[in-house]
Amino acid sequence: MIKRNLGAFILAFAVSVSVAQNPTIPLYVGTYTSPNGSQGIYEFAFDPKTGDAQLIGETKSSNPSFIAKRGVLLLATNEMTDGSQTLSAFRIGDKQLSLINALPTGGSAPCHVVMDQGGKYAVVSNYLGGALDLYALAADGSLREKTDTKLYQGSSVNKNRQEASHIHSAFFGKDSLLYVSDLGADKIYMLAVVQGDRGYTFQEKGEITVPAGSGPRHLAFHPNGKLLYSLSELTADIHVFEKKKDTWSLVQTISMNAPGFAGKNGAADIKLSQDGKFLYATDRVDANTIATFAVNRKGKLTQKQVISVMGKGPRNFNFSPDERFILVGNQLTDEIVVFARDAKKGLLTDSGKRIKASKPVCILF
């Protein structure tokens, strides 16, 4: 009996040690919802050592196509076009997300949200209507009020896609300014958020012009704050801008496609590794690839690898916290593909791990 109990104790101890050595972390996935598909935001338990993931729960929310979080607050843009489009605030709990409140957006098809470092306000990009919205956040994480909306009315040379301003994203630079990509106008606007008598408001600080017909979508900043990488959806080019004094100058344009590619482009997302040595970008439509670039000491890019995403419609992607993996959300094939990443060479290989999710379009740790 003593031996049997001792054996059970040893087994239990071994299991507890194994769990302690391989703790899981929360993984949230924003989606496009449908009656027979996703109902909102997925939460998975992700194992950063193995790349495995287990579904924990699903929170109902209409088309939460982009999500952002800080602490126990998670924000989601409800990308609707029928007048019900909102920004929703959720509290992260032990078992599931709980809705705090929601406020309407100033435009249509809200597709991106970002919070400031202090968690005092949030900025929403609306793909339709040319609207950039600013929301004040309360201490409890709720959306207090919408304090400002900036409306843009631009256009460019691609008459099918650039007939009007399409605000696609807003990211904070190292200078604390907002850099807002307008796909429709081939512009990146620079804005400050200031606090005055009527709350937080936008203040214009300048703009960057990208080559005509490019369609800037998302961007990334080098850790030194003096280099900006803008991904163009319509051409699948990456434009490298360098800041000298207060002026951003275009210093390189490089395609993310493999040599000889002649299909339609739909570049989607771009991110830089924490050490600033490697940059990654996804392309949808005909390519369905993720590209890897090496970043030299001056910030210039050299293409190292272009590989299949093992699916269709690669939208958003993200690094695991330790950057051992890159997770790519394939919207059209209802799956997240987990790639193993070589930190020294930057190259990606298929880990063989897959996470089932209906129309995944935003991945967040």
UniProtKB/TrEMBL annotation:
Alphabetical list of PANTHER family matching this protein: 6-PHOSPHOGLUCONOLACTONASE, 6-PHOSPHOGLUCONOLACTONASE-RELATED
Organism: Sphingobacterium lactis
Name of the protein in its database record: 6-phosphogluconolactonase
UniProt record, GO biological process: glucose metabolic process
Keywords on record: Carbohydrate metabolism, Glucose metabolism, Signal
Organism classification: Bacteria, Pseudomonadati, Bacteroidota, Sphingobacteriia, Sphingobacteriales
Keyword flag Cell membrane: no
Family: Belongs to the cycloisomerase 2 family.
SUPFAM superfamilies the record matches: Nitrous oxide reductase, N-terminal domain (SSF50974)
UniProt cross-references to InterPro entries, sorted A to Z: Cycloisomerase_2 (IPR050282), Lactonase_7-beta_prop (IPR019405), N2O_reductase_N (IPR011045), WD40/YVTN_repeat-like_dom_sf (IPR015943)
Signal peptide start and end residues: 1-20
Gene Ontology MF annotations: 6-phosphogluconolactonase activity
This protein's record includes keyword Lipid biosynthesis: no
Highest taxon above the source species: Bacteria
Pfam families: Lactonase
